[in-house]
Amino acid sequence: MARAALRWGVRDLANHAGITAATVTRIENNYAAHASTLLAIRAAFEAAGIEFIPENGGGAGVRFRKPSAPE
Fold it and tell me: What residues does the HTH cro/C1-type domain cover (predicted)?
């Protein structure tokens, strides 16, 4: 969902997360991944402005983070 929201292809995510496109594809096909790889993906999404929403009865999800107020 986050990749689609950003309009990133597999290679875009791989480049931002510092992993291979094959790794992204494997994870998206529900193969196991190292925790460090998942953290790198999450960090890449968060750096791009994605916010992860925890399960709240309606299911977990993602959204764009609100822009911070100018100082």
Answer: 2-52
Q: How many CB atoms lie within 10 A of CB 17?
A: 20
Q: Which domains does the chain have, with CATH numbers?
A: 2-64 (1.10.260.40)
What is 4-64 written as a DSSP string? Answer: HHHT--HHHHHHHHTS-HHHHHHHHTT----HHHHHHHHHHHHHTTEEEE--SSS--EEEE
Torsion angles phi and psi, residue 3, rounded to 5: -65, -40
Q: Could you tell me the pTM of the whole model?
A: 0.84
Q: Which residue in 38, 31, 36 sits closest to 2, CA to CA? A: 38
